[in-house]
Amino acid sequence: MLIVRLIYVTVNPDQASEAERIWKNECAPLMIRQPGCLSEKLLKCVDAPGEYISYSEWESQEKIDAYRVSDAHKKIKEHTRTLRGGERPVVKQYQVGS
Which residues constitute the domain of residue 46? Predict the structure, then answer.
């Protein structure tokens, strides 16, 4: 069953360009190569500078679980650790209705 995983992230607006660069050059390439990851996009809020959503589609919960304990996930966390925002990222998962 297809699962959409959304990660809501806020960074300081003065770090927005750096956040986008890190995601494009470091994080997205790692994530999209993971088994079961069908697509990955970074959504930039037009109303709130520094607010983003990492949008990814996955084949199954099992594939997400495997990714979350992978070296790629650890590297993504390392790349984004320097970015500061007001709140911790919030992760939500949705099943695509039939």
Answer: 13-52+59-95
Taking the C-alpha atoms of residue 95 and residue 9, their distance in angstroms, rounded to an integer, is: 21
The pLDDT tens digits along the chain (98 residues) read 899 999 999 999 998 999 999 999 999 999 999 999 999 999 999 999 999 999 999 999 999 999 999 999 999 988 888 776 667 889 999 998 76
Q: Write the CATH number for 46.
A: 3.30.70.100
Answer whether residue 5 is part of any domain.
no
**Residue showing tokens 């650790």:** 81
